[in-house]
Structure prediction request, 697 residues.
Amino acid sequence: MAQQNEGPSRIPVSPGSGKTGEPPALALEFRGSASEYFGIWLVNLLLSLITLGIWSAWAKVRRIRYFYGNTRLDGHAFDYLADGWMLLKGRLIAVAVIALYASLELIDPFVQIIATFFFIPLYPFIINRSLRFQARMTVWRNVRLNWQGDYMGTFKAYVLWPLAAVLSVGLAAPAAARAASLYLTRNYRFGTAEFAAEASLKEFYKAFLLTIAYFMAMAFMLGGPLFGIGAVLRAEGVEGFGPEFLLPIAMFIAGATAASYYFALTRNIVLNGLTLSGGHGFHSTLPGLGYSWITLSNFLATILSLGLLRPWAAVRAWRYQADHLAALPAGPLDTFVDDQSKAGGAFGEEFSDLEGFDIGV
Amino acid sequence: MNLRGQIFETASARSSGAELSLRAGHLVLTCQDDGEVAEVQLTKVSDRLAGTARRLHLTDGRLFVTEDDKGADAILAALGRPAGFRVFILERPSVRNLALCLGLFVTIAGGLYFGLPVAADLAALGLPDRLERQAGGAAFENLDSWALEPSQLLTASQDRVRGLFEQTVRASKLSFVPELHFRASELLGANAFAFPGGPVVVTDALVTLAPNNDALVGVLAHEIAHIEARHGLRRLMRAVGWTIIVSTLIGDSSTVLDELVAFPVVLITQGYSRAFEIEADQRALVLMRQLDFDPKAYEEMLARLYAPCGTACDEAGWWSSHPGFENRIEALTPAE
Ligand SMILES: [Zn+2]
Prediction:
């Protein structure tokens, strides 16, 4: 029954890493399956509906545990340590805060504007709590991740840099993305071990330019035909599917797939420049075109199946990411030790979740 | 009863093969490396979940990890410990579970389709009037600030419309007289709208377009019917309900494309909106008859309002908030 005799799967060192004499790369291995996750997803869905959303806290735990727990490195699985009660408590507080904020509009829109100004300085604090909670709940080999960003650092990376990107009409966007990624990864700890991160600005700008080219190609390839279809439907007297309806859809899909293309390219840059104390490296080879295709086809499959293929899509996207990531150990992996710092409550995590922030590499 | 797995030292990545066994009701840990044999106690044990290893935390801080779910369950049962959530039984991919889940799914979907509007309406009706009026007032002020300009109508015609409005309100079930505002708007053309709990806004172009008092009463009665039946708030609560459900449904990933899946909520609520318009039309006819105005004038007024749009607005699309002209006339005809 026990599987500890099962050796880790090893893939040859990629020629791209260029170093010699290092131990073989350890591929990340995902053992989940769509049919298995389908059951978990469906039961989560039904129980969430029956309990009027209360189960969704446990649903989140089971979903994340399924993906983490079925992902293995060197034969050892990851795991997610949060339990439903923690998340439910955080979620209730987050819902109360959001509801309070929304109800301010009913009392007086002006009060709401003032409240917004008070909220902005709180965002770095909430982001920090969220990242820390996520990290402390993620474990591999009895050692948990940690995140140690401070208020000013987060303020710079997630408020000032994006502001600079907007003010420069996007010209500073790659620099902002690089600053945020470096800040994020450098503040992670695996137990007590620190991460060092390097990423060249040139590579970020290259990824950015490639993404713009990708977007234009997609917009042209999707926009042209959809515009034509819209014009034909209009001429046939079919209302509601005219070019002015179909063209924004084409632009939206082009933009969203371009976003996943950019995600893949920058993820490779950041992970390939990352080292864990002791010299352990990472090798990420997520193909931009491949990943954006996965995102687009997942989306179409989900829509066309009225949501039923969603578990399949989620497993497929996760597996694709796992398949293109490997660790490059510089020595034994059992020397890490955890520290005992606390995770804090789940409020920040749940608030970010409900508000739809998405921070991560 | 032996459970094979690995033991991790406290807060350490170092592990070695180990075995947990039950001897005379006591849990005993045997480490393969150093041959240590010790009695241990469990604290937290992770729930069973397909494909994932079980984590049994020991009171001394060490962690025992095993792939043997059945063995772990047997030991927990023998120790008299709760086994944690047993939902994995339902989660297993089997024909029986699939049938069970799909059956439940159909039941729930049907229940939602018919039950959600009822529940949302109850929630809307349970909200205090004061809150509804504040929301309506705030929404009006917002629109007023960017889309509406002061009315150019003569005081005399404003007073005439106001008189008809108050007369219609008295015939309705409303216990208060909602505010009535006259505004000019190039953006909105000939239009009238009711905010939750009032106010009602009438544009100058609408007053000019109306050929007689009967037509005006028709439009005013339609808006009063919206307030009377609390359509605005009910639509909002139904939208909130569906948003909660759809976001639970898609809450397992977060690429930008997923935002599009929220589209169905808009479609569903637009459907409700069209139904409410028909309801308000029918109620308007009842009020008109009660006040001895000519119901035919309302149909003619609708025709005038829809005229600029032409045949394109005869039938409503699935995305529009208002029914098409022909849909509305059809719904009014049986009431004649
Ligand atoms: Zn209406």
